[in-house]
Amino acid sequence: MKDKHGANIFELSREYGFEENEIADFSSNINPMGPSKFAMDFLKDNLNLITTYPDPEYVSLRESISIYSGAKPKNIVLGAGTTELFKQYVELISPKRALLLSPCYSEYENELRSVGAEIFYENLLEENEYKIDLNNIINTIKSNAIEMLIFANPNNPTGTILTRKEIGSILDTGINVLVDETYVEFTDKDKFSSVELTNYYSNLFVARGVSKFFASPGIRLGYGITSNREFLDTFECNSMLWNVNIFADILGQKMFQDKAYQSEVFNFMNEQREYFFGEISTLSDIKYFPSYGNFILCKILNQHTAAELREHLLKKALVIRDCSSFKNLSSKHFRFCILSKEDNQKLIQELKRYFKSSL
């Protein structure tokens, strides 16, 4: 059974009578600024390439990713989204014992269970604001003979993070580490991205995509970075010819080159994240947890549940994520992402109205 992630906007529009474009989806964690205009314009000017097969080696796309990420082109693999890459890496390592953070993205557990791994959990504690304890992780790895660690950096849904140096300490234990950097571009990559470590550690696999920061989930483009030659050779042998379509190839090449767009998104997200921190801190019935992602985890402190709040907001065409399905969270926890200034202000207004009326 496939897990559902975020909201189905089409289903909600039918159920609540809204047009799709009227719904503000705070559950999907997608950059509200949309894709790079530079990339979109280039695509429009080259729509005739639909009649052309992509370059099977994706030389130009790999070069753009290499310049953007700092990875060596020979260490880059391409896929139809990051889930495909997770799957292949987990299958290659096929760990007997693996470690996950709790809470975390559910697909990691699904992939590990598919290879029969025994799964251990490093519980992130509310009293520590869900911060990741490096010493605890290393002790758990050593005391339980862990062979593989999978985590997102920043972690979803908590928004907490490890530095590159801390990740290096985990790699020094010798276990295989898969770092999902889906959200790292919303924060300081120079401090938190582990891509540079792939030059020194063959036991590291870094996965990224274009769905969230580049607002392009529809093209299904993901890329992985590793110096693990066994994985790279296996991936090359097993991947389908032209596994990335021509439009993903074209858009990918240009969006990774658009530095002005990247800076604009980064600055906007940081500004609006601070806006939310300031506004929510005025609400006595909600506690927020510091986040390095483009989303914020909150807990309701009064008698209401996240499900009740979600249902109330749906009637206003606002969609948040009820986080009760995450391990180590409760019916009081919810998450929302950063959208446009107008939508962000609307969400804050509705939260203030809802919690004031519930007194």
Query: Structural class, judged by helices and strands?
Result: alpha/beta
Q: What is the gyration radius calculated from CA atoms?
A: 21 Å
Count of the separate structural domains:
2
- Characterize the overall form: globular
Let me know the number of strands.
Answer: 13
Mean pLDDT: 94
For CATH, the homologous superfamily of the largest domain is named as Type I PLP-dependent aspartate aminotransferase-like (Major domain)
- Main beta sheet, described? 7 strands, mixed
**Share of helix among residues?**
25-40%
Cofactor: pyridoxal 5'-phosphate
Organism: Peptoniphilus asaccharolyticus DSM 20463
Protein name: Threonine-phosphate decarboxylase
GO molecular function: catalytic activity; pyridoxal phosphate binding
Question: Summary?
Answer:
The protein is α/β, with parallel strands linked by helices. It is built from 13 helices and 13 strands.
Protein model, in words:
The chain is of the alpha/beta class. The protein folds into two domains: 9-35 and 260-357, Alpha-Beta Complex (Aspartate Aminotransferase, domain 1); 37-257, Aspartate Aminotransferase, domain 2 (3-Layer(aba) Sandwich), CATH 3.40.640. Helices cover 38% and strands 16% of the residues. It contains 13 helices and 13 strands. The chain has helices at residues 9-16, 37-44, 59-69, 82-93, 106-114, 134-143, 164-171, 189-192, 229-238, 246-255, 259-280, 306-314, 341-357, and strands at residues 24-25, 76-79, 97-102, 118-123, 148-152, 176-180, 204-209, 222-225, 286-289, 295-300, 318-319, 321-322, 333-337. The strands form three sheets. The protein has a seven-stranded mixed beta sheet, sandwiched between helices. Strand 3, helix 5 (106-114) and strand 4 form a beta-alpha-beta unit. Helix 2 packs antiparallel against helix 10 (246-255), helix 3 (59-69) runs parallel beside helix 10 and helix 4 (82-93) runs parallel beside helix 5 (106-114). It is globular, with a radius of gyration of 21 Å. It starts with 8 loop residues before the first helix and ends with a helix. Residues 1-5 have low confidence and may be disordered.
